Amino acid sequence: MKDSLNTIYQELSIEKEVIDFCDGVLSGLKSRFEEIDRVAEYNQLKVIQAMQNNRVSDIHFAATTGYGYNDIGRETLEAVYASVFHCESALVRPQLTCGTHALSTALAANLRPQDELLSPVGKPYDTLEGVIGIQPSKGSLAEYGITYAQVDLLPNGEFDYEGIRNAINERTKMVTIQRSKGYQTRPTLSVERIGELISFVKSIKPELICMVDNCYGEFVETIEPTDVGADLCVGSLIKNPGGGLAPIGGYIVGKEAYVENCAYRLTAPGLGKEVGATLGLNNQLFQGFFMAPQVVSGALKGAIFAANVYEKLGFSVIPNGTEPRYDIIQAVTLGSPERIIAFCKGIQAAAPVDSFVTPEPWAMPGYHSDVIMAAGAFIQGSSIELSADAPIEPPYAVYFQGGLTWYHAKLGILMSLQKLYEEKLIILS
Ligand SMILES: *Cc1c(COP(=O)(O)O)cnc(C)c1O
Questions:
Q1: CA 236–ligand 1 middle distance (angstroms)
Q2: For a substitution probing ligand 1, which of 239, 364, 383 has the most ligand atoms within 8 Å of its CB?
Q3: Class of 58-289 per CATH?
Q4: Tens digits of per-residue pLDDT, 318-344?
Q5: pTM of the full predicted structure?
Q6: Cα separation, 175 vs 159, whole angstroms
Q7: In this predicted model, what pLDDT tens digit does every residue of 102-121 receive, in sequence order?
Q8: Residues with Cβ < 8 Å from 242, sequence gap 6 or more?
Q9: Given 136, 173, 309, 426, which residue has the most CB atoms within 10 angstroms?
């Protein structure tokens, strides 16, 4: 078997030196992978339990059109999400076009002119700068007279409790906490740490609405931010919870009153959750959520494997090879544009779709510098599928995530290493 595996890897143009180097790394990861499997098993059971308790049935896969009144599939899917996140209410809609839209909806729905939004964990994800108005933007919260305050993490990654206390004032209405590091090199927050932060801000001002940007974090741990006091928790269905099958969508879960505000903002005041046809997508949204724990575990194994491969080669990796994981993103600082381009070419070449195209750096809406993106995905832009992104700027870090299966993630890493190796941008020792 080992021979035929080596043969097919070599047919896919991975050289023996690369395979041997990676085999050496993998042999040290057995117990890590077992732990990931246990988390996936728990989360799989949690999802099945929620589907059973909400009596999911094939009638829920029927398509609705037009206004979408009485779409029981949609209502049941939302009940399943609310059960899994242990919260009162959920809005899970194909009309939430992406993660940014879901976050923008949750913020705009719950803030009013003169209110202030606080980020106690530093700068939010790039695309939210326009939403908030950190970068002037048409329709931003700033244009509606909603102000923004930010407290950065301390240099050691801890919360700046003193700074946060000072930043909370009589206008502070909402707190936004980004779980994942996104395109930064700060650590990702564990759900437990998010809980500590929420307790702290609520001890100062109990009525604060705490929202967590949960993108890339779903099913990485056995608990979610709503288990530790988050009032709202928001994410994208073309990331973890869509399981690679959801073709579009976002979710907002949390306290009934705040989720209801989101529904009124998404559709229209007075209409709220009652409208929104699902056009036959419910089947994929249910099945994707069912698959998600397993898919996330494959992506996590890929991230840990990559961290250990590149760490062994002397590159700086965040998270490092041994530390615990709280999202599926792996940052690897490769230190030169040539290396990040070669890495991305490898990810692309390993894809089941569009393996023959060559990724190039390009200007992207919402990003500061040119970005190179590698993905050969079944769903366009899906980043639960194996994908790599890198802004072409120092320190030349590539952000790598996803993989619908562990074996595909593994091939992607092998192929990235192969490209670096054949362009003589690394030395295998
Ligand atoms: C991806 C992401 C977003 C935005 O989601 P899109 O679907 O790309 O709009 C927001 N926050 C974080 C942390 C993300 O990873």
A1: 7
A2: 239
A3: alpha beta
A4: 999 999 999 999 999 999 999 999 999
A5: 0.96
A6: 14
A7: 999 999 999 999 999 999 99
A8: 236, 249, 285, 288, 289, 292, 379, 382, 384
A9: 309
